[in-house]
Amino acid sequence: MEAAVPIMRITLNDAVIGMEDGKETLYTTASGNDAVFNVVDIRSNTLLRSFTLTGVAQSWRHAIAPDGTVYIAAINGNNTPALWKYSPETKQVTNLGNPSPGDKSLWSMTTDDQGNVYIGTYDTGRVVKYDPVNNTYHDYGTMMAGRDYVRSMAYYKGHIYAGIGAVGHVVKLNVETGEKTVISDPVPGILGVQPEEVPFAYDMAVVDGYLFV
């Protein structure tokens, strides 16, 4: 009898596309004991470079700032969050530390016009802002009492729209004042279900002034 061969699988949970050195470039992180961040030339299907993210197990979200910096919302192997960045100028990755002590993971992320980074967490359901100019974090707190996840996120004209789970809601956050407004109360009626039956607000995007969830 031949020895069994283990199945090897690489998991890519998320990717973003930007421009680097004038080329359309894909950025993604392969899960593993030490996850690997990859930079890929889309047109030639060529791996340009890769980086081991020491201690990171996986990433469920990447975001690109206006200056081209790629941010990686990472989950460490010991179930703690970490934020990393990749510079297309220096071709280096940097560990920016834990943006949300007390949480287990980072699930969503977006940027604004000034290059600030907004991150959604589990299991306190918080939104945290990273200011790259001052290299500081600002905690906006839990978006909705009793809800664990900020699973999706979008930015539009001074507001973060935070998609909540495991019961779905959408919270509008004023990033200047910190004011929070739940805007999803009509959704159960639209769907014809009870409020507790609305599923995760799993993903979202703003297109032509409309928020799609």
The total beta strand count reads 18
* Helix percentage: under 10%
Shape: globular
Mean pLDDT: 95
Helix and strand content put the structural class at: mainly beta
Largest sheet report: 4 strands, antiparallel
Written as H for each helix and E for each strand, in order along the chain, the element string is EEEEEEEEEEEEEEEEHEE
Rg from alpha-carbon coordinates: 18 Å
Cα-to-Cα separation, first versus last residue: 53 Å
How would you explain this protein's 3D organization?
The strands form five sheets. Strands 1-2-3-4 form a four-stranded antiparallel β-sheet, with no helix packed on it. It has a four-stranded antiparallel β-sheet with strand order 5-6-7-8, with no helix packed on it. A four-stranded antiparallel β-sheet has the order 9-10-11-12, with no helix packed on it. The chain is globular. It is 2% helix and 53% strand. The protein has 213 residues and is mainly beta. The chain has one helix at 187-191; strands at residues 12-20, 23-30, 36-41, 46-52, 56-64, 70-76, 81-87, 92-95, 105-111, 117-122, 126-131, 136-142, 149-156, 159-165, 169-174, 180-182, 205-207, 210-212. The chain is built from one helix and 18 strands.
